[in-house]
Amino acid sequence: MRREPFFSEEQRKSPTGRGSNPRSRANLKPFKPGESGNAGGVKKGTVFIAEAYKRLLALPVNEFSVYKPSSIAEQIAMEQIQRARGKRPDADPLPAAKEICDRTEGRALQHIAVSDNAPVKVVFEWVDNGLAGEGE
Q1: Quick one: which of 31, 78, 97, 110 is 20 to 30 A from 68 by CA?
Q2: Contact call for residues 130 and 80 (beta carbons, < 8 A)
Q3: How far apart are CA 84 and CA 93, in angstroms?
Q4: How far apart are CA 63 and CA 40, in angstroms?
Q5: What are 26-37's pLDDT values in tens digits?
Q6: Does pLDDT of 136 surpass 50?
Q7: How far apart are CA 76 and CA 70, in angstroms?
Q8: Who wins on pLDDT, 89 or 133?
């Protein structure tokens, strides 16, 4: 399905309207070669634990048992998977399995049971000075 452009060709070429201010256009500068557009963001090559879980969980069992982790994230993921499989006698496997599921599949929905069919009021409060309770 083809979408219509948000602005018509005439609107884009118009000297007035969105983006027509000379100061607005002066701020548009291309990045220099080798310069990132997300300088303060996540660095290239960053290994996320959730991605390490997904990669390791996709391995066949015989490959997983001989796999050598290439990063700390993979090492942490391997240890958690081993706990979840019951390979660590000192650790309960259930919390590890829950952690892996939460990271790879998203947290499960939590339902609230209301016994008397009364309306439920949920209040979200934005606090300007950080977390609620700080600075009070």
Answers
A1: 97
A2: no
A3: 4
A4: 37
A5: 677 777 777 767
A6: no
A7: 11
A8: 89
Tokens representing 120 are 């439920």
Q: What are the residue ranges spanned by the domains of the chain? A: 49-105
Type of residue found at 10: E
Does 52 have pLDDT greater than 90?
yes
Residue by residue, DSSP assigns 118-131 as: ----------TTSS
CA dist., res. 104 & res. 57, Å (int):
10
| Measured CA distances, 8 to 3, 14, 108 (Å) | 12, 10, 44
**Which amino acid is residue 23, in one-letter code?**
R
Q: Which residue has the tokens 């879980």?
A: 53
- The answer to whether the pTM exceeds 0.85 is no
The token duo for 83 is 């706990």
